[in-house]
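Co-fold these.
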Amino acid sequence: DAKTTQPTSMDCAEGRAANLPCNHSTISGNEYVYWYRQIHSQGPQYIIHGLKNNETNEMASLIITEDRKSSTLILPHATLRDTAVYYCIVRDSGGGADGLTFGKGTHLIIQP
Amino acid sequence: EADIYQTPRYLVIGTGKKITLECSQTMGHDKMYWYQQDPGMELHLIHYSYGVNSTEKGDLSSESTVSRIRTEHFPLTLESARPSHTSQYLCASSDPGTNNEQFFGPGTRLTVL
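Predicted complex below.
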């Protein structure tokens, strides 16, 4: 998996949009950007993934730059329950059973 | 909500005991994984499986072993537990039909005294 770089921690006010950046400058053409989050003491939860187009689902939006060297996860209206560690992972979606390579992620703290 | 289960959720056991951590999923996924996570640290892949009768070692070396006799079960065994095995163990499964999204269980928190 290509290496990703994320800020160690971020704060966001409840009700505001939380924008979590991720740098993946060595991403290759067949690699996707995945986002997971891990709420304290629980298993990680899939959020969203994308290749080059922006993506949106019921949880979040993913904005990928045109050169694909960075991306931003957007939680449009953060709530206290969104406090978690967010992981940006780059991997080939296609093949193998290889697991995910988790970095340290960003600890997002939603402030009331 | 993911249909993947782990038991026990918490286990405190003495050194030298044999333990088996259970993981089961009802989604029919072929691929399954075990990760290890120390408190406040990153997750590390220790085992994975492509399907029945397939087991592979992951990125982090582990003294544990796994088996995959049935699609839905992927148990992890420690023959002789030691304090250095104290950690959280997370099981996951995935399927190519869902873009290889991994579904995680709630984890087993193991403490070896």
